Amino acid sequence: MRTEMNARIISSLLCTAIGGMLAGCGDGGSSDADSASQKQIAATAKASAVACAPAWNASTIYVGGNSASANSTNYTANWWTQGNDPVTDSGASGSGKPWTSSGVCGSGTPTPPPVTPPPVNPPPGTPGATTGTINYHLLLGAGSAQDQLVLDGGNYNDLIMSNIIAGVMYGHLVQQYYPGMQFQKDYLYGSILGQLLQENIETSLYASSGNLIDPSPDQQAVMGAGQGGPYQINNYAADMVSGSYAPAGHSLINYVAIQKNIGYTMATAAQQYTKVTPPSFNNKYYGPMLTAYFHYNDFVALILTGKGTGGWVTPWQPYYDNALANFTTLPNNFLDVLLNVAYNQGYYGTLMTSYSKLGATATAATVASVNAYSSVWGATDTYQQYPYQVRYYLDQLYGNPIPTTSATTFTTPANHVAFNIPALGTVFSNVFQTLAYVNGSGSSAYISAAQAQTAFNSALASTGVSATATLDLSNAANRAQIFSILESAIGNLESNLNTKFSATTNSQL
């Protein structure tokens, strides 16, 4: 009834406003009684109309949840925005637009918005602009940053995208092996990028015009014998369970998806640590994915090492197994800390055991304590600092509060990284074209651009994100959308190819 009445009121108002010339308004004339009735309806509608928010102004900064009105319509800001006209730059939730209409306001009679010249360049903080600075190569509370990544201009956008795609694959593999596993997506998905910033010599020298993560001769030390490239995965040829260089099922070369492009074979794997790192490790599309598999291999090896016939007691067990079981019911846990410790200090370092013990009996209070920067603030032990250095770099990237002069003094960085959806689709396609699968003929084949793009487009449809949207990685809601798109796209591709990205083989394909 309420909808029907509103429809009649709106119809009557339209008829009155234009002299009754619309179909359904009668013959254009009306009796005095009809006119009085229409005036009464108009007066009632005007009295009950929603008030208009302050008029939108191009020079005003709006943040998520702020309201503004234009052309007798109220709009709600979806994130930080300035200079984006809500009349022309609004859409439904998930559209990637900075504004969403919240309905007609006032009398319903359009009024022109204030005229303000549009900015020449995209203003900082809008989804279309990448701005800010990431400080890295530092000890929290024990030293200042040695390097900076200046985001302005978007030179690093595709490199950040490829690392986030690899990070989502990392999480996908973990959850495929261990259904129900929880973790902080921001930190686990971002681990690959954080590792690049901390372990690489100078990522700031990266140039988006090429495909190399390290294009400068100054950085080529990371491509030395056994070094593992920009991410320093320097025992990449070893079998992580047997401890030998003969691939026995838990070497990177055993994974179907990465074997074809890795740059050495099962036959040469045992000597690979004496040779220079294969060029593929320095490819901006393949290198991050290779590192994701390296970390996933750690996750699995920590479960399996020492078990089975002839097994031995490892210092991290049974605590690690118990921690994983506990993490399935413990939100915001520190799985990323555990796995980054395993990468940086190694399985047999004391931190692996101590964090596993904490995880085995962890409660929400334990999680809060471990997650706090104060737990390592001022420490000079680089192994202890490493997992938190990764988090610190990511918190800067995401616009999360970071400690400054003390572990309890925080500031919120004003960084923004624009993930333009067409560009993200291109990077997704380029990343997956470096990976392979076993096709219907039983042959190892690279994933095609068309296969990757189909999976990505389906993900956009299922998540309700426009194919022309731009999402801000530094905005929590936008970041969740980015993660959802990539999670869905990876799942789609796996289903379409009838493969599992965690599949292994003991044969050279």
UniProtKB/TrEMBL annotation:
Domain of life of the organism encoding this protein: Bacteria
Key words of the record: Hydrolase
Keyword RNA-binding: no
GO biological process, one term: carbohydrate metabolic process
Biased composition (Low complexity): 100-109
GO cellular component, one term: extracellular region
UniProt-recorded Gene Ontology molecular function terms: carbohydrate binding; hydrolase activity, hydrolyzing O-glycosyl compounds
UniProt xrefs under PROSITE patterns: PROKAR_LIPOPROTEIN
InterPro entries given in the database record: CBM5/12, CBM_sf_5/12
Chitin-binding type-3 domain sequence ranges: 53-102
Ranges of Pro residues composition bias in the record: 110-126
Region Disordered, annotated ranges: 86-130
Protein name: Carbohydrate binding domain protein
Species for this entry: Collimonas pratensis
Lineage of the organism: Bacteria, Pseudomonadati, Pseudomonadota, Betaproteobacteria, Burkholderiales
